[in-house]
Specification:
It is a single chain. With about 350 residues, this protein is mainly α. It is built from 20 helices and no strands. The radius of gyration is 24 Å and the shape is elongated. The relative contact order is 0.04.
């Protein structure tokens, strides 16, 4: 084996993630000079990024190691050999679990995570990744149990604490979610995601002014986050501060010109101001970004209804009802149409 290969394996099995990243990058550079790119160092980087909660980086590494069938086969051969040589290593089983989970074998990965936890009962990582499998399967209570165990074992492990807060929030248990976000901020005041999560939870509690401040802090730390600009715009709109809402939605588009939801939101603001042509153009741009945007179809339907084009309106109302995920919104729209004597397909 080449020297970068050996060094990376040693660092992986010792859990020295800083060293793994350095050695994997060196290995990737070394393999990149040959005719055939080696996916294995990119998988090592993927492991590091997942453990550190650097999900955007993990996704980029995933594309270089776990998308092509030939890459998956080569990584599998390496991970199988690693586990065969170090079957008593908790981290070897953890690495196998991460490989299985990301190559479409989530069920099989659970056994690897459980074996990793059994071999090292003090490690938070197996519980953290096992929780993610439960969460993807919509088993939130089981996910919360595992996230809580990860946090108990490693109180300063920010990714586990963040995900625990998100899982609580998904259940509507805001009083449990908010302390997790505050603890993350206490340990890492410059974490923009924690401030954004806190803002969202506070807004759901109806605590608007603290939510505004938390969103603004998130944007101070990361001014290019289109989703946070959009969420802040929604808060302004809820409070009736429409000029600020419009500016903030446009800030979202400046951060990401393909952020279709911001076009939809601006379209509805234009519709409220009876700027019909602007609204039409904005809704159309939203649909270019996302052909399943229910608010854009809903807005276009309203425009057709105002113009007296009943059939075109109904076609778009039907699409809006189809794509709205919230059953309450779907039912409200259907009830509105029924009361108006219209019945969508």
């Amino acid at each position: 084996m080449s020297e970068p290969h050996t060094a990376c394996e040693t660092a992986l099995l010792s859990g020295d993630w800083e060293r793994v990243e350095q050695d994997a990058l060196a290995w990737a550079r070394h393999s990149g000079s040959s005719e055939a790119r080696d996916p294995r160092p990119h998988f090592a980087l993927n492991v590091v990024y997942l453990i550190k909660g650097r999900f955007a980086d993990a996704w980029k590494a995933h594309a270089l190691c776990l998308e092509a069938e030939s890459d998956i086969a080569q990584v599998k051969e390496w991970v199988d050999a690693l586990l065969a040589r170090h079957h008593d290593s908790s981290l070897a089983h953890l690495i196998m679990g991460l490989f299985l989970a990301q190559s479409g074998q989530s069920e099989q990965s659970m056994q690897s995570y459980k074996q990793a936890a059994q071999l090292d009962p003090q490690s938070a990582y197996p519980h953290y990744f096992l929780a993610q499998i439960h969460e993807r399967a919509d088993h939130l209570e089981m996910a919360i149990k595992e996230y809580r165990e990860a946090v108990r074992l490693a109180p300063d492990y920010v990714p586990a604490r963040t995900n625990l807060g998100v899982a609580y929030q998904e259940q509507g248990r805001l009083e449990m979610a908010i302390p997790q976000y505050r603890e993350v901020i206490k340990r890492n005041p410059n974490d923009p995601i924690a401030h954004a999560n806190l803002a969202c939870a506070l807004a759901e509690q109806g605590k608007m002014e603290p939510a505004f401040q938390a969103y603004k802090e998130a944007l101070r730390l990361n001014p290019k986050d289109a989703e946070v600009h959009f969420a802040l715009g929604g808060l302004y709109e809820t409070k009736g501060r429409l000029d600020l809402a419009e500016k903030t939605y446009r800030d979202a588009l400046n951060a990401n010109p393909e952020f279709g939801a911001a076009y939809s939101a601006l379209g509805w603001l234009s519709l409220r101001k009876q700027r019909m042509q602007d609204a039409q153009e904005l809704f159309n741009r939203a649909l270019k970004c996302n052909a399943e945007d229910p608010r854009a179809y809903h807005g276009i339907a309203e425009l057709y209804a105002i113009r007296g084009k009943r059939q075109s309106a109904m076609d778009n109302y039907s699409k809006a009802i189809k794509y709205y995920r919230d059953p309450a919104i779907r039912n409200a729209l259907m009830n509105q149409l029924f009361q108006e004597g219209q019945v969508p397909d």
